[in-house]
Amino acid sequence: MSAPLLAVHALNVSYDVDRRKLRALTDISFDLDGGETLGVVGESGCGKSTLARAILRLVRVASGRIDWQGSDWLQHDPRALRLLRRNVQIVFQDPFASLDPRMTVGAAIAEPLEIFRSERTLAEREREVARTLERVGLGAALMNRYPHELSGGQCQRAAIARAIILEPRLLVCDEPVSALDVSIQAQIVNLLRELQMELGMSMIFISHNLAVVRRISDRALVLYLGRTMELASRDALFRTPRHPYTRALLDSVPTPSVGARRRGVRLDANEMPAPIDPPGGCVFHTRCPFAIDRCRQEIPRLEEAGPGQRVACHRWRDLPVGD
User: What CA–CA distance (Å, rounded) separates 154 from 134?
Assistant: First the structure.
């Protein structure tokens, strides 16, 4: 069996806030194979975007490992890291903030070529930009437009073109469709799937929209207050969710395509606790209808709950399986 493309081991990220320690991520671990898509889901403030930025080393990692093809990414010096980054790109949530408003679309998309393939002539780079624009469903005629002259969907396609022009091995998508109209979201998801198949790249797809995650992901990682609640294949997660939080997320989806309500397992009216002051024991116990004293006192371990399915819950064996 070949080694994973990316392996994250016990990743911890924390920030100092008003002389207190905010633990944004705690002991996050997962593997990602070549050509695979991992969906990362959870409510706002659960650590999804921090995870994306930590993998890209855009935020400081307190401890842990990020192995890229067997080499610890966190140990690379800036020069080596720069070379590695040509293989890992990101698509952000806000398409208009992703591109420099002072640069034309063509210039923005060409910038990675200027950095990593400077030996190419201007004409060669322009041809590559035109080809990439066609690849993402935009015509080469848009090369001389500025971002404000594009629609939201067009601008996100341009941002995707900039991210894939180097044909990366891994594309990190941080809520790439949440700022778009529903009618455009499906088009962008379809585009990402087509590009993944064409380029053979892996993806980490971050979203709070479970319907989108189900459509695009092979596996899913469920986060809550910076901790892993569940890690499972797409089918296992949606058919037999083991963690009460996963079930609550599924119950919150207002469309029948994701699944029926699961025996009253849903979030109560309490808001998610502040990340600066998380509950002791299981961080979800303050909102969990199945919490017992052990949940309030002891942090659950991530343990096997089925083939390819791991869950951090003291009571997962006691909960009904399926609908």
Answer: 12
39: β partners: 205, 220
Q: Domain extents for the chain?
A: 242-323
Beta bridge partners of 232: 220
CA distance 305 to 318: 12
Check if the beta carbon of residue 244 is closer than 8 Å to that of residue 265. yes
Provide long-range contacts, Cβ within 8 A and 24+ apart, for 269-277.
272/43, 272/45, 272/46, 272/224, 272/225, 273/225, 275/22, 275/23, 275/24, 275/45, 275/47, 275/225, 275/226, 276/17, 276/20, 276/22
- Alpha-carbon span 160 to 42, nearest angstrom: 24
C-alpha dihedral sign at 60, 168, 73, 47: positive
The pTM of the full predicted model, rounded to 2 decimals, is 0.91
pLDDT in tens, 240-294: 999 999 999 998 876 555 444 554 556 654 578 888 999 999 999 999 989 999 9
